[in-house]
Amino acid sequence: MKRNTLQLWDKFWEQNISTEDSTNLVKAENSIGWQRIEKVISQKFQIFSNLNIIELGAGSGTFSAIMAKKGAKVTLLDYSDNAIRTARELFRRNRLNAEFIKQDALSLQVDLLNKYDISMSFGLAEHFRGDQRINIIKVHFDVLKKDGIAFICVPNKYDIPYRVALYIAEHSIPWRTDEEYPFSRKELGKICQQIGITKYAFLGSSLFYSLNFFYPFRVMKKMFMLDGNLDTCQIRKERGTFIDQYIAYGLILYGIK
């Protein structure tokens, strides 16, 4: 797999500009991962209106768009011009407002620290190793106000379909982005302790989604039109299981500063 570089991510987003549409946004809103995140936020803040939220390594900014729809003030930060362009297009199509910042999440300006009620990332931290791996988690808390919440979604080390696909990619076909190193709950908990975060827990995405890493399952979905261009009114809320946080692909750490 290729090394994590700005050039790689610019190329990735150049190839994926304008692929996010309203259907993908509704799918994300109905995902079990979002339902669980929304529940935590609602219990903490009751409403989204006027919450100050930042998404780090935002990419297309899908979850920021969901929060903007609910009235939050959102900021999207990414160091790739093409990622920012993709996010701007998603927000434009959905008539949503946001602040867009081109900046490296590991080199934040001082005026971004201690500022936000919520920080989040989806597919960022797994692209780092060593000290940077710890620092990228720490940054999520550095930008928060006291008692703010960070949501950090990463690939789960114990999701078998994903690990099989990753192994094949490492030894044969190119991976879809760059090198990545999945997390376990144990590692995330250890990092939280290292950076002084004592209040944290875990959520999970859909275990069923993990099957998408198996090529035969993707073919079957197409054969039975389970993954076609659905009208937004046909999209139903995703259901979860109690084991999602242990072995589903998306492992979501949420911690309070």
What does this protein look like?
The chain is an alpha/beta fold and 257 residues long. It has one domain (6-256): Rossmann fold. It is built from ten helices and seven strands. A seven-stranded mixed sheet has the order 3-2-1-4-5-7-6, with helices on both faces. α5 (81-93) links the parallel β2 and β3. α1 (6-16) runs parallel beside α5 (81-93) and α2 crosses α4. It is globular. The two termini are 34 Å apart. Residues 215-226 have low confidence and may be disordered.
* Strand arrangement across the biggest beta sheet: 3-2-1-4-5-7-6
Contiguous low-pLDDT stretches (5 residues minimum) are: 215-226
| Number of DSSP E strands | 7
End-to-end Cα distance: 34 Å
What is the arithmetic mean of pLDDT?
85
**What is the string of helix and strand elements?**
HHHEHEHEEHEHHEHHE
Q: Rough shape?
A: globular
Please report the first level of CATH classification, the CATH class. Answer: Alpha Beta
Q: Give the helix/strand class.
A: alpha/beta
Any idea how many domains?
1
CATH architecture type: 3-Layer(aba) Sandwich
CATH superfamily: Vaccinia Virus protein VP39
Strand content: 15-25%
What is the name of the CATH topology? Rossmann fold
Radius of gyration, rounded? 17 Å
What's the total helix number?
Answer: 10
Task: From the structure above, extract its key features.
257 residues; Rossmann fold; globular; seven-stranded mixed beta sheet; 40% helix; alpha/beta
Task: Summarize the model shown.
By secondary structure, this protein is α/β, with parallel strands linked by helices. The chain has helices spanning 6-16, 22-29, 32-45, 62-69, 81-93, 130-142, 160-171, 185-194, 215-223, 244-247; strands at 52-56, 73-78, 99-102, 116-122, 144-155, 199-204, 250-256. It has a single domain, classed as Rossmann fold (3-Layer(aba) Sandwich), CATH 3.40.50.150.
